[in-house]
Hints:
The protein is of the alpha+beta class. The chain is 31% helix and 26% strand.
Amino acid sequence: xxIYRIRGGKTLSGEVQISGAKNAALPVIxxxxxxxxxxxxxxxxxxxDIRTTIRIIEHIGAKTEFDAEKNLLTIDATxxxxxxxxxxxxxxxxxxxxxxxxxxxxxxxxxxxxPGGCAxxxxxxxxxxxxxxxxxxxxxxxxxxVKARTKGLTGATYKMPKISVGATINLLMGASxxxxxxxxxxxxxxxxxxxxxxxxxxxxxxxxxxxxxxxxVNGVEKLNPVEYTIMPDRIEAGSYxxxxxxxxxxxxxxxxxxxxxxxxxxxxxxxxxxxxxTKDSVTVxxxxxxxxxxxxxxxxxxxxxxxQAPMMSLMATLPGISVIIETIFENRFTHVPExxxxxxxxxxxxxxxxxxxxxxxxxxxxxxxxxxxxxxLVIAALAAxxxxxxxxxxxxxxxxEKLCHKLQGIGADIVREKGGM
Length: 421
Ligand code: UD1
């Protein structure tokens, strides 16, 4: 397994071009299954999760061509069948449950192994399943496989008991081809949901209320294959801004959407950093007097849970006390023990982490436990004094395209080496 070797303490400066959004590309790829024929997707990031998703939809019968250099993916979903997606494929990626929507809509049945994904809490899929039950499906669980059957999805009104990005996405796909009107309430308003909705509308779906908590879908009989460009990755953009801030550099993220990371921009400004933006770029620069902050993760437009761990690495370097309250996932502090190894002064109390900033983090051998925890360790190592070795970097490969290359481009001393545990 490869490792990252990072010599910290360099001031980062320059521009990073942001890739297409992983969490928008995943549902858009799967939603291509809703139309017979060939869809063409641009700005698809070359990531492990994307490659896993491609394997999953090929398993179901789609024919794909991925030009990773051009970030161009074509998907021909003329013939799809409910071939059970094996556990080996779904275990690494929770978004594999997304195939349920298109399979139910087109084949009236779906067999999907219960998914895995980042080890960040229980993360059940009960809301996805109750939604499909409301829309006229029966669901059973047999030997770890969810088996859903329907005589044809029908429109329904469903208030999700909790805001869920994944459930909103899955039900939106199913409702697009269901008979009649579906009203989804308490929907996720994340830009990824909106991007999927725009893709569906381009395919011919009748959807109103995207980006609000109430989405109304009038089912159509068929959707058409289309060309579509995936939106920029807001979590990647945020991660590079946090890396720049932690190293007290001046870093610009380009091909980004400032409004998608407004909560981060506001937090960095409140901490004393200088932020500036154009229509499609954001720059962070050091400020005069930096200070800690209280940040609470909440659904969009609040502070994203996916930037919580990277934000904690920055906080570990700021003067004074910072606090993070994690309200989305119950077990998302697995980066904390590793940050402690790097000299961080952090205490966990239930869902809160209290971070007492230290003058300097120190290098250490550390290990990634999940994707965003991995980003946090890279940021900490970039800011730390000395040479750190980071293991299990396959977690970062799931979500950060050309991480090493992009960081080198803004002056980081980072190399990827073969070996390690
Ligand atoms: C998505 C993102 C992930 C992000 C998360 C929250 C993708 C591929 N992943 O994950 O990066 O961290 O949104 O912004 O887009 N829940 C249930 N039952 C369900 C579904 C969810 O209880 O059926 C709970 C979860 O355990 C969690 C909360 O709802 O506590 C939010 O989860 P959800 O928004 O569904 O996250 P994902 O879609 O899995």
